[in-house]
Design a protein that fits this description.
Distance between the termini of chain B: 29 Å
Helix content of chain B: 10-25%
Number of helices of chain B: 1
CATH superfamily of chain C: Ferritin, core subunit, four-helix bundle
Oligomer: heterotrimer
CATH topology of chain C: Ferritin
Shape of chain C: elongated
Largest sheet of chain B: none
Order of helices and strands of chain C: HHHHHHHH
Largest interface: A-C, 28 and 28 residues
Structural class of chain B: little secondary structure
Strand content of chain B: under 5%
Largest sheet of chain C: none
Strand content of chain C: under 5%
Shape of chain B: flat
Number of helices of chain C: 8
Radius of gyration of chain B: 16 Å
Order of helices and strands of chain B: H
Number of strands of chain C: 0
Chains: A mainly alpha (84), B little secondary structure (48), C mainly alpha (190)
Number of domains of chain C: 1
Chain lengths: 84, 48, 190
Amino acid sequence: MDREQLCMLKELMALEFTVLEFHLYLDTHPTDQRALMEYNSFVQQLKVLKQKYQERYGPLSWQEPSSYPWQWIEEPWPWEICYE
Amino acid sequence: MFTPNDQMRLARAYVPFQIFSQRLNPMEGLMKGTIFPELYFPYRRHHK
Amino acid sequence: MWFYEKKLQYPAKVGRANVKMAKYLITQYGGPDGELAASLRYLTQRYHMPTPQAKGILTDIGTEELAHLEIIATLVYKLMDRASIEEIKQADLGGYYADHDKAVYYVNGSGVPWTAAYIQSKGDPVADLHEDMAAEEKARATYEWLINLSDDPDLNDTLKFLREREIVHFQRFGETLQIVQEHLDAKKYY
């Protein structure tokens, strides 16, 4: 995996992690409006970046369009990546 | 020792509610394992 | 239902292959305080939770634990990568090798396979949430002992991430406990 892709993948991990953190927080604080606003804003940013990543490097999620041949099984799988 | 308030009763465990005030930027949050600075309690390794 | 995302939650690195460390670390895969036990515990306890917050938090943390399970498997896989028979023998993993080669299997650090007896689903939400908080603390402690055992800064970086997640989960379960207790009190007295 080249540097550019790895860098984008880490950005994606960071955004998705931020969404997860707000998600768990909101489970026990469903009426915290400020946290909800932050959550919605990060969900939007994550969507944009994920779209960009997938257009460039192939699907990360299960229900994504694929070019030919079937891209989902393209290597490397997550445990095979060198995250240096 | 902390003093229980009148909404608490004996024989019950309490964890104070977090009140969201600030967050770290996404990459720093990922590296630390939380985006909430008030929940960040890093391990200081001790050599026994 | 669940869908797989083809990426790790955290960029899990190891500095070098290290069979001994793989042997210690695998307890967080299939051991009593490991990620499999955590995930399956929360995902099965959620059916008896009385409030929407509790159903949500057990579903979401149970799901995050599956992501942690994948991180542990990745670390074990990388630590075992290209290990020679000699190294496996030296790490006293010959017994494991005879049963599994270098495949990742659900055992604790002493090779005992995972069992559902590690977890409980009591049907009492207060008792279950206390178990969940204890589980987070035990997993936190396990990560600290693993960090003490490891001299690999790259590996420790990921172990510190996983340890911090236990703290955040403890906080969420603690808040959930409060919500559930208030809910049960309201049912009793009003």
